[in-house]
Amino acid sequence: MAVRKLVRYVAGAAALLAPVAAQAATRDAAAEAQALEIAKRAIAFRSVAGPGNATEKLDDYIKSVLVAGGFPAADITITPVDDTAYLVARWRGSDPKAKPLVISGHLDVVEAKPSDWQRDPFTAVVENGYLYGRGATDMKLDAAMATAALIQMRKAGYTPRRDIVLAFSGDEETRMKTSALIAEQLKNADLVLNIDGGGGRLGEDGKPQFFTWNGAEKTYADFELTVTNPGGHSSAPRPQNAIVQLSEALARIGHYRFTPQVSELTRTFFREAAKQKSGELAAAMRAFAADPADQKAIAVLAADPAYVGQIGTTCVPTMVSGGHALNALPQRATANINCRIFPGVKPAAVMETLKQVAAEPAVTIRDVTEGSVPNDASPMRADFVAAVTRAMAKVRPGVPVFPSMSAGASDSMWFRYHHVPSYGASPIFIKESDDFSHGLNERTPVDNIAPGLDYYRSLFTDLSK
After folding, report:
1. Residue 20 is part of which domain span?
2. What does the radius of gyration of the chain's CA atoms come to, in whole angstroms?
3. Nearest Cα to Cα of residue 456 among 99, 151, 43
């Protein structure tokens, strides 16, 4: 994710798992019912980019819920952008000089074709303990719980010291244009809670195993490689062939591995994640955390798709195009290299490395990245770490809590670009076998709602008072 020099923090990595006295969660049946109802109604809006995008209508619905819950209509804005829109709702605090706390998420979802699903993806269904529908995991249930938690807090008479700003972008799954606009508007924030990141893992037996919060994400980048030749008739081959030259360059890039890296956050992740694993993988995690140059550990982690992206920058060819006729020498061949860059590394440095690795003078390379900006890790701030650890201890006593780095992109990127610390902090717990985000038959256990509301209420209160 993006940006920021380390802010002073009192506790280091050891504080992440500091014992916190578990407190009994307070059940609120009305709030739980409201959260589920909001989620079901939200799923019914087809908030997908393109014709018929219903994101603005979904924003209107969320606004009506907030107004009914005590938010002044004047403090809620919905801003149309192209075929989508974004919502910003402000709960004004008692100290107008205090920087606001932002709760960030998105209401758009990826496309879902009903003909491919077992159930209509835009008709929410609760069945066998699961909420089914597009957005059940990513991330309409989280949006519903955060909304219901804020309403619950208002009804209980809580007054925040700093403003609490609820911000829902409308194209996080595609261009992130609204994401960038929101971050620009709220760049004076103290910190951001991104409820579209982090989360807990359930074992296949349904028992909670661990919870991670996202304190960093890799920078997304696309680089276009091009080779051009004069071309000619295929019956008269020439020593230089654009497709061959590009192919050889791609093969070299495909075999190249960037030097592994660790940060304070990823080192802590590997140390703590090793406690949840066993055998060779656990040993490799511990060894890599101790020495990121340990070749045996690197080999084990690089061979695992779940962890290769955690040990450094990765670049892979994703698209190729070449030639213009079956019976002609190619005049042009192009390829796209998609990179996920370790926080703190500049895209320009990665592009220069790719150029050197390609080792083909005929290849030109340019940065064609859209909708992404470089971002560093967020600091491991003591106030956030303590608040998230305390909130989780209240609802999932004894569950290990530690940081993680996301290999994907989220709205946090844009806030970090403006030097605003942002943390992925969703309380959703899910089995690995149940994770169908962006896939078919998306579903999430509904028993996340009760602890999720208490977790959000605790986290929002601690960081806004």
Report:
1. 13-217+374-464
2. 24
3. 151
